[in-house]
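REQUEST ID: PR-0412
SUBMITTED BY: lab tech R.K.
PRIORITY: routine
TASK: structure prediction, single protein chain
INPUT:
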Amino acid sequence: MRKSSPLGFTLVELLVVIAIIGVLIALLLPAVQQAREAARRMSCTNNMKQIGIALHNYHDTYKTFPPGCIGSSTAVDPPSGPQMWGWPVFILPQIEQTALHDLLNPNNRRLVDLLNNTTQRDIVMQRIDAYRCPSDRTKDTVKGTPQTFDFDGTAAVGTNYFGGTLNYLGVGAFASLDLDDRPSGPLFRNSEIGFKDMVDGASNSFLVGERDFDCSSGVWAGVRNDGGPGPRGINYVTGRVSIPLNYKTKPTGNNGCNEGFSSSHPGGAMFLFGDASVKFISENISFNNSDAAVGDNKGALKNNFTLTNLGVFQRFGLMNDGQAVSLQ
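STATUS: complete
OUTPUT:
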């Protein structure tokens, strides 16, 4: 009698099939990951485009862009009024978040007053998808840990509060974010910048750029302890271009990437320009890392600073330097 062949694979055949499947996965996985990143990058571009349109609509109404943040240059902030709020709050109505804007009531109270209200302080923890890069791994609150909000040198009621994550930071300055250190971007403390101030042209001026988890991201609500001449948390909503793009470690001579721009996209970051266009900027873009072009350990400009020292990335961050600049 003829014996029937056993059903199924032999051990050798099974190992061959597993090896083939492994090779196919190894070949296909990078393509799948690239496709996913391309989709996330497109979503990020759409977010920034939405922010650009919102900023333009705000400008149409008020004839200027919103202030990067509101605060005093003295040691103590005023006891009332729209203090410590950041520019993302002021454009909430333009991104279909009018109800949230009205609940925050930024035109009539300080951010610290909201934090002192135990029934409302959680509002600033909300996730706003339009302010989040899909590629970034930051949790809904900055770094997933409580972000301290200190005002006038003392904390608000309690000790720590979560701040809703912001991945899109306003371009506030070339060198230092301090009020008195020649802010040169469109969104700095108490700024009232309009298109007329963009001498280099809106299409040649950064308006907003990315910052990712590794560089502490940002907080959409505003700043902490803004009183005084130092940054005081201004880097929560704005950044400066004297730090190389995607420089994830603290370079000698400046405050590190938590005041600069970075992203989780491979090879660069998305930037919103003054004309509301969104472009991917390579991390290899021209940048002059000399002391004269970067600044001292506070980011303040050196005495030997000249515009000719600047790279293309730095020139895009200055809206009125009069220097020709191009990505080409």
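NOTES: The chain is about 25% helix and 10% strand.
REVIEWED BY: pending
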